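We now fix the convention by which a protein and its fold are recorded. The integers have meaning only within a learned vocabulary of local backbone shapes. A complete example follows; check for yourself that the lines match position by position.
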Amino acid sequence: MREQEADLVVVGAGAAGMTAALTASLLGMRALVLEKAPVIGGTTALSAGSVWIPNSIHARPGADSLEKARSYLQATVGNRLRPELCEAFLHHGPAMVKFLAASSAVQFRAYPKHPDYLADAEGATLSGRALEALPFDGRVLGADFRRLRDPLAEFTLFGGMMVNREDIGHLLNAGRSVAALGRTLRLLTRYGMDRVQHHRGTRLVMGNALAGRLYASLRARAVPVQTNVAVCGLIERDNRVVGVEKQDSDGTSQVFARHAVVLASGGFSRNPKLRARLLPKPTPRHSPVAESTTGDGVTYGLAAGGKLGTGHADSSFWSPVSVRERRNGSTAVFPHFVLDRGKPGLIAVGRNGRRFVSEATDYHRFAQAMIANGNDGTIPCFLICDHRFIRKYGLGIVRPGASNLSRALSDGYVVRGETIRGLATALEIDADKLSDQVEAQNQYAATGIDTDFAKGGNEYERHLGDPTHGPNPCLGPIDSPPFYGLAVYPGDIGASIGLVTDEHAQVLSQDGQPISGLYACGNDMDSVMAGVYPGPGITLGPAMTFGYIAAQHAAQQRPIDVNERI
């Protein structure tokens, strides 16, 4: 059997795994990344890419503190919070951001404004904790640009141009602002030039920019990232994990790790058995996570004596998603994060025609409300709006301006009715109750007060609304026919339950002792948030932080003697 060796062997090439490998390399270790998929980036490359790190170098001086962030997590996660993990995250998260900024291409900035999701809780902030990777030029990767996982097609324009929220604002205002027009022309010119040489645009934003920056940093340090490599199991000697068995096109081989193995394969989200065991019933069918996220790290960690976490508020993190078959026959699972639900002039109802939640709440709690009210026909639930709304804000995959609305209607993604009762009939929901809800919504739009669910009642919800609309940026009438409905489902966007670790990211055994030589981070690791979603990027923030912690701790451990490993 062929053999390889490295100081640190990392299983998975998402943000967690690449951060661990990059940190190890910067500390002088030889790292090796093994990725099952043919492309690099995991679910990170598909995501919005927000990274929640309180009190970092990007926070406005004096606006945040360790104590304030700790108070917020204690107020939101509550007694589910493991203090040692919380302290490790709060102390090392800012250090990770500063370390990578000084030593690599991984550069962040804070969103100008992005409130914490539970905006009324003690310690919440309006900005500074949610970071995003700076836009990245994919041309830096050269021929390896094709090795980076493409973003969700529905997050792009014109078949491959990535845009962020700032870009969208300029595109929509190109006819009313000279500055917006100039930005739009620059984006379109760059994209046109890209498509002469590349299969998609090379200006990367969101999670694709983060994955690209991490991968470029690994390339710059000659850290190998092997794709199409399936890890078959862990190698253990004398009560220590000393490597992995892998399988690729050349067959089966062993890779020995002088310091440690880090599991960062993305969690259990695509593992049918673990989904059936851990997710609520009936088991949700739709998830936008990378298809390669099949629970390998969790499975092998359990086989080595690890254990899964318990006591979570939820086993996964959630978003409402809409589903559509693409022209190539694949299925698009589109997460409804921020662009439609919170805008004025939309309600969400179950099959009974009734609202069940504030539409502007964060996506995790929105989907949780769908699951909790499932007996009232909220799986799927239906987003209801009028023609004015869909033209101004879009709806799911339908873009603002409604340029692609006709196709969405023809393939059934969106349903239209000339009247509210006609729409209710087409959607097979209670017409009387839907009519009542629309009438109530129109009254709330006039007063600015939603007496049912207080939509637009806190800073986070108002942030999702339309700041040019009043008196409440989240409440508008539904009175401009025709009317439209879109079915959305609860979709899991990342695992919360994973392998229990200590504050150093070492996997713990059933008796609570560290398994020597084995670490976990990202969604393979039991989440410090314990199924609560306090802010944007609470998966990627801890993922990168504990990848950094794992490499730092592993570097201090006694390496195995290669000559005595068998």
Observations:
- The chain has a mean pLDDT of 94.
